[in-house]
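Re: weekly structure request thread

Next one in the queue (429 aa):
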Amino acid sequence: MKTTNLQDGVRRTVLPSGLRIVTESIQTTRSASIGVWVNVGSRDETPALSGASHFLEHLLFKGTRKRTALDISAEIEAVGGETNAFTTKEYTCYYARVLDADLPLAVDVLCDAVADSVLAPPDVETERGVILEEIAMHDDEPGDEVHDLFTEVIFGDHPLGRLISGTEATIAPMTRTQINRFYRRRYVPPRIVIAAAGNLDHGTVVRLIRKAIAGTALDTEPAAPEAHRPADRRVRTLPAQTVVRSRDTEQAHIVLGATGIGRLDDRRFALGVLNNVLGGGMSSRLFQEIREKRGLAYSVYSYGSQYADAGLFGVYAGCAPGKVDEVLDLARAELGKIAKSGVTAEEVARGKGMVKGSYVLGLEDTGSRMSRLAKSEMLYGDLMTVDGLLAEVDAVTLDDVNALAHDLLSQPMSLAVVGPFDSSAFTGR
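Done, posted below.
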């Protein structure tokens, strides 16, 4: 077992099994947050197992050898805490936030759920129904659906292009045996990071975790921690195209965009600035042109999604179907203008301020501090200090932003549309 000091108040221990524990002591708070992060997500699934990570996320709260589903929720709620989980394309997280005195309970409950769930057949069937309802509910939310459609337009049949939840066609036939095999093969110590932040002592947290996982599937032979996810040179993106999904909706939902950059790209700080200038706030160009000046849409923004080896960049707008052409024309014009002429020094300064402010203000609670620790350890392999990150943003120049804008926004753009249109409505656009 090896323990190192990463920063003031931040310590990291690697257990012999390869499981990593990272904590941040914040003695000025009376709460603590803990998360069990597993370096497995929907992109790690075969087509037949699409949705397995998300299915498993549901099942791990359904009972262990020591606790029923009610026990798991009741024990945390009895002390005023909260627990939840989420699945992404590249990782899964199970977390709890409690009073500092109740951290031992949270450690025991979370570790028990992640390490020793039984995946009882009746629970598999119950959660199958819940997930199918979740998929159906998602299909009734066109504002969410259009983003999934756009991701598919960019990545096609690559795992990054598939739905995190899976589809009815993959969830309905998925067996308990398949899910359990996925669970036991993927949820192994070298792929797991347990992060905690709040009023805590690192050594105590390590002892609590070791006790909680003793005798479970996470109490394994020595192994080295898994490095952060390597770049997959096989990621391919599709040529620019337009895809329309016809829905009888009152509002049309569109995403216009193209491929972006990966998570470890040195230009990610410039991208944050560019995104804020283009569509990241009320002062952004798209918001001003489309909403403020013309009132064509209530919601309009730009965004980027970054993965280990790929990314995308898009502009979203929700508007009346009859206004789609005008909104698209304005969005394309703004993208073209920035690609050709760039942005101004004043806009860059404002964009940098927004990036720095959102980052620092986002670290005001123990949950966000815990997430920062885990993502730094698991996704980046390095914990950058807050001052270091702010310095990286400050170092972004006007030329950096404009060069990136030219690279990203000069690309042929793909378009995803969900609304009351047929597939020929955007021919030639």
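The two ends are 60 Å apart (CA to CA). The longest helix spans residues 121-139.
Next request, please.
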